[in-house]
Amino acid sequence: MAKLAGSAGVPVLGDKSLDFYRDPVGFCQQKIDKHRGRVFQCRVLNRATVFVCSVRAMRELLCEKSNTFQKDPTDLMTNMYGDTVVTTNGEEAYLLRLSLTTLFTGSCLKSSNDYITSVCERHLKDLSLSGRPPCLYSAFKRLGTELVLGLFLNVRAEEQPQLFQEIVQLCTQHWHGLISAPVNVKVPLWSSGFSNALDARDRLMDIIKDKLKNDTQGFVGSLGSLPLPDSSSASQHLLLFISALIPKALASLLTSFTLALSGNEQKHRRRAAEDPDYLRRVLLEVQRLWPPFIGGRRIADEDSTLAGFHVPKDYGVIYISHSVHRDPEVFEQPDHFLPERWSGRNAGQEHFLCSFGNGPRSCIGTKLTDVFLKEACMYLLKNCDWCLDPPSQDLEYKWLPVSRPAHPPAISFTRLDAAGCDGSDTS
Ligand code: HEM
């Protein structure tokens, strides 16, 4: 059993949280280079923490040893969202997942199809007609927000604009409390952002409880009739589902998809429009290179190992999706956008990704996300063409709270029934 590279540092003074939050990807790359390995330790959130940046260690953490590496019930998520499946362990988590999964699969998911199509059409038509949207990510986030509030809460922007706006504002306020806390590692509960967030949470909970009591239709109706552990469970999960997190993650993937296909190669866009399997490979490559969330966190319940390194009990463990997805052991030319890898060497290796987690605690919204993404991407591919304008721009990414370009890229859209981007296919 090998000793972990790096140092867990002394409490408080040895903490590297700020360095990590400033530039998580640069931070990990620097450590990988320094230690010449993809598993190392340092101190974050004032806890000795193992960083997992290899596919092998990620699979052990999230799959084979998922009973040893547990969710942290004292995680900030619990403060902000209450007791939800996200921070629960053992049998309780298993049963909750079993119940909730029925809402995101099968006939429940099917019944969302028409709404997903109509929201995508309305938003993306406006986007493509606007020609040059000032911020693509913000436009996609509005689409994601309408999707989430309409689907999960039966609140539709065009039917109840005031209530819709109020909820959007409360979700933003709630979210700002969540992200203000990690920076104030020492006194998270004292920051003013945090107390504003708790006020927003209370008001959101009132709206949610009212919906659960009075709406029998749709997702809220189905959630209300699920067997859940206690009376507050349905409302706490709804708070989680309508949080700003999900629209941000959806917008992140849609932005990365648009950028990945924004070169002057019209033939790639045409191929993706006509060949669903090629679109699937493009989307796999998008989530590999630009996973919306930086990763996830666990706590070691007992002494164990990851990729042969000793991990003591009570150590934190963080998997970093960006680095796992660029592990050269598994992905040749890891920094290149190569959709073909998913029909070549990496065919059938989707289980080496962790954009949606992995193993028994992976995301329960992947099917819904897949349906939504395919609908949105297909609409764009079939109805418009787009390109970076000017063609050379700074496309550097930032990674927190979700991955997206650090500076909004300038993109030109044209309807396919009008002239092409520059009128010709130069590929
Ligand atoms: C682009 C969209 C999404 C991304 C990138 C995403 C990503 C993730 C990731 C990485 C995890 C695992 C976290 C960990 O290992 O600690 C996760 C878990 C989870 N996701 Fe998603 N998610 C997305 C959409 C959704 C949607 C639409 C829902 C449902 C409304 C959802 C509900 C959940 C839940 C409840 C968990 C916790 C599962 C558990 O702890 O057992 N997600 N998601």
From TrEMBL:
This is Uncharacterized protein. GO terms for molecular function: heme binding; iron ion binding; monooxygenase activity; oxidoreductase activity, acting on paired donors, with incorporation or reduction of molecular oxygen. One of its GO terms (biological process) is sterol metabolic process. It comes from the Eukaryota. InterPro entries: Cyt_P450, Cyt_P450_B, Cyt_P450_CS, Cyt_P450_sf. It holds the Pfam family p450. Belongs to the cytochrome P450 family. Keywords: Heme, Iron, Metal-binding, Monooxygenase, Oxidoreductase. Gene3D superfamilies: Cytochrome P450 (1.10.630.10).
